[in-house]
Amino acid sequence: MRTYIIRRLAQMVPVFLGIMLILFLLLQLAPGGPTGMLMDPRMSAEQKQELAEKYGENKPFYEKFISWMADAAKGNFGNSITHKKPVVEVIKDFIGNTFLLAIVSLLVGLFIGVPIGIVSATKQYSAVDYGTTIFSLIGVSLPAFFFGLLLLKIFAVELPWFPIFGLTNPLLRKADWIVRAIDKAHHLVLPVTVLGLTQAASFMRYTRSSMLEVIRQDYVRTARAKGLRDKVVIYKHAFRNAMIPIITLLGFSIPGLISGALMTETIFSLPGLGKISVEAVGQRNYPLILGINAMLSIVTLLSALIADLLYATADPRIRYD
Amino acid sequence: MKEKPILEVKNLKTYFYSDSGTVKAADDVSFEVYPEETLGIVGESGCGKSITCMSIMQLIETPPGKYEGGEIIFDGIDIMKASKKQIMEIRGNKISMIFQEPMTSLNPVFRVADQIAEAIMIHQKISKKEAREEAVLMLGKVGIPNPERVAKDYPFSLSGGMRQRVMIAMALACKPKILIADEPTTALDVTIQAQVLQLMNDLKKDYKTSVIFITHDLGVIAEMSDRVMVMYAGKVVELADVEELFTEPMHPYTIGLMKSKPDMKTTGDRLTVIQGNVPNLNQLPTGCAFHPRCPYAMDICREKAPDLRDLSSSRKIACWKEFQEEGMKNE
Amino acid sequence: MTSNTTVSKCLTGRKDKQVESFWSSIFKQFRKNKLAVVSFYVLLVIILACIFVPIFSPYTMEQTNMQEKSLPPSAAHWFGTDDIGRDLFTRLFVGGRISLGISLAVVALECVIGILLGTLAGYYGGFVDGLIMRIADIFLCFPFLIICITIVSIFSSGPVTLIVTLAVLSWPSIARIVRAQILSLRELEYMEACEALGISDSRRMFRHLLPNVMAYVIVYATLGIAGTILTETSLSFLGMGIRFPIPTWGNLIQAARNPAVLDKYWWYWVPSGVAIFLTVMCWNIIGDALRDAVDPKMKR
Fold first, then answer.
1. Best label site of B54, B196, C74, C179, fewest CB within 10 Å?
2. What is the spatial distance between Cα A202 and Cα A208, in angstroms, rounded to a whole number?
């Protein structure tokens, strides 16, 4: 197990460096270069030269990369041009909302998708199975932004049950924490419905196909031949094995989850990373946008590692390798 | 041997339905199993021997399979009509089964001892700890060296032979009345095969268990069985004591099987093969399913399938030629 | 495909009857899936409409008419008009041309890159494999949507930038599939037969291994088109793909981000949403059916 973790960590290092290198290249390629934003068209050529000197623009490429990496390692991605604050501070302000949305939706997706996927697989060709298949097909085919707008149109415009945008009601700023929590939950219902159901649809598909694969295995027949009840056979013997590929999928689905969260935020105007990155791109705020990219890549890399560890816990063949 | 049978299968019909037609995998199969005997079932792959045994355990997937009729009498109850609860009490407890593929028959994510203990726990009201101790004991009995340590292993670290021993330990843990062994040694090396067969014979005597032994290997059948049932295309074609069958096979298919088996006498000669191929089970020929391959086929064989009739107290056959020679009428 | 057919193919170096029957059996399996056949025709209608509606429509996509602005659907304007009086029926299918065209181009390019790198990795193994797969890992770690809008904003947002960006970001999945297939095929006897016959590396790779992998690539590409349509429309919904005044299915829906439009003018955005949904679902159903046909093991 320990060698497995060490090997995985060692594999992550070049990947991490690669991500940072590509982001650095993008920063260099951005119009005007990394300091372009700081320059004022009214500055003289000398002043520009001075500024470039100050920010190390004239150093050789590898030196620039190393010093950028060193700064990044210290959590310094430079200043966000529009917020007049360090990039890290800006990200810190907004990342919580994005994670809240992503994690709640992921849990909703898992708790709906996995059990229904299991039932659908064990009752193959039944009405439940057809219903599940159709639902999950719709779920993976419906664009999140369109789904979100439909929900807004129906449940916020036509039937004013839910707020149209935002995460909090400004009038309740001074209310009890419990009132504020309920308010937040109320604001999150539609966004979580959009992202959670999309996630549920793909978990349903994968759980169903993984279970179908497993329940035809010889060891499931052995479990039935022992005289175990169907529930034990399915939930203990079969699901314990079907879980393994689902965990792998979980690791792979994190980037999709984050993209989904960003999209959902934009539709419902939630103050999160999605909203500020779209703004940052519009304002050509490159330090911020690259900081967000670096941040989210690292989150993805770490969640892949966690998925790997869970995978190793679930599958003894890996644990003892 | 004429005591009361402990298992009676009467006119069992298990069919499979698919887009490409109906497969009569077990068609009107009848036989008995007597206490402490070993009944061998032999036939080419796809002849219905596994389906017959899976039907006894009620392990057929329905759909696509369907039990179309017949009775399976065990312990005074008809398994075909038994409640789910009754079947659960029989499976793994009074009748248990081991399978062809030891490599894939154990659950890869559970420890060996836990898998055996689980079978003991559900059928005997004992604690988890006692069940585990019992499991270790069973591992010792099936000849696994260092059972204490192996008990904590996962199946992937065991060899095929070891895994099949674990399967046997699991199957015998509840001291069943009948053990069904579906080609238990086919996937093993020859030397391991001999050891496992020896083990099964020893344990069978210790536990006074009846065994239904499925194989396509006539050598194994001769070594293991008291009586032999030959199946072809979902039907029983011949049933006899093992000595009788080997010294005087009667059904043309059995004769063909015997001839195609290499032995010391045939050295140098070409092995005889049965002409033609196993028929496609959803497009069986009319009449006797074997007639297109049978050197003795007569007109009646093409028109009407022979039923299984008693030749003597210990011998049954389904063949028009034999019926004629024995002076039996066609009805 | 059984190793027998591939052995004979390897030895003769041409398609024989058995290989053709592999493809025709896929076709036969596919035709059995009624839903997939229906999806195929629905998709055909959508594609033909995207091609012909803009040609035969009495309106053009840019033609404005302030007398006829924001009209609900009628006989003259089947899907109504927008806030400057453009015919939305025409714009919908022009948008379809762009969204479908870009997605097809992305998947084609992605397949080329993925097949090439996947084959190299699977065939050579070792260092080459490690390098290519680590690069694939890098691309898989980026937050897809954000890196897309970042790149598009840095390199300006033309269709070429968009196609290249999306393809460069999505090749790793296909490379992994190809690599896995090659790895398992390489072990089969017929490759040894090829080696024994002294067939060169590149010939072995492209003539003998790739055809075996193509079926999986086609399945993946079909499902990939569905995914790419969703990505492309998401980007243009965010205003990061193809921009106004050229319509795409994504930027047509963007109109609904205006609360007034969301409140009153449903015909601005609902038809393109439905169009995306139907098209993506058809590709998904067809892809699923192809996968079941190619790999019956995965059906059930």
1. C74
2. 10
Q: Is residue A319 part of a domain?
A: no
**pLDDT for the residue numbered C2:** 36
**One-letter amino acid identity for C186?**
R
Cβ contact (<8 Å) for B106 and A221?
no
CA distance B257 to B274: 7
Reported as a single tens digit per residue, the pLDDT across B178-215 is: 999 988 888 778 888 888 888 888 888 888 899 999 98
- CB-nearest to A240 from B92, B106, B109 is B109
Nearest-CA distance from A297 to chain B in Å? 32
Give how many domains chain A has, as a whole number: 2
pLDDT of amino acid A113: 93
Six token digits for residue A134: 């159709």
Determine the Cα–Cα distance for residues A46 and A114; give it in Å rounded to an integer: 64
Question: B88–A229: do the CB atoms touch at under 8 Å?
Answer: yes
Q: A-chain residues within 8 Å CB-CB of C134?
A: 11, 14-15, 18
Q: Taking CB atoms and an 8 Å limit, are C143 and A143 in contact across chains?
A: no
Are C41 and C48 contacting, i.e. CB atoms less than 8 angstroms apart? no
Domain for residue A126, yes or no?
yes
> Is any Cβ of chain A less than 8 angstroms from the Cβ of B318?
no
Domain residue limits at A11: 2-86
Tokens 């719709």 correspond to what residue? A138
ipTM of the complex: 0.84
Residue where a domain stops, chosen among A86, A119, A146:
A86
Token representation of residue A184: 């937040």
A64 at B interface, C-beta within 8 A: no
Name all domains of chain B by residue range, CATH numbers in brackets: 7-94+174-263+271-330 (3.40.50.300), 104-173 (no CATH)
User: Is residue A222 domain-resident?
Assistant: yes
Mark the ranges of chain A whose per-residue pLDDT is less than 70.
Answer: 32-44, 48, 51-58, 319-321
Number of domains comprising chain C:
1
Residue B275 confidence class, pLDDT cut points 50, 70, 90 = confident
Asked if A32 and A164 sit in the same domain, the reply is no
Residue B305 DSSP label: P
Reported as a single tens digit per residue, the pLDDT across A34-89 is: 555 555 556 667 776 776 666 666 677 777 788 878 887 777 777 777 777 888 88
Measured between beta carbons, which residues in chain B are less than 8 angstroms from residue A221? Answer: 59, 99, 105
Q: Do A152 and C269 touch (CB under 8 A)?
A: no
Under DSSP, the state recorded for C87 is: B
Distance in Å, alpha carbon of C94 to nearest chain A alpha carbon: 19
Task: Answer whether residue C136 is part of any domain.
Answer: yes
Vertex B248, ends B242 and B252: CA angle to 5°? 105
Pick from A67, A86, A105: which residue ends a domain?
Answer: A86
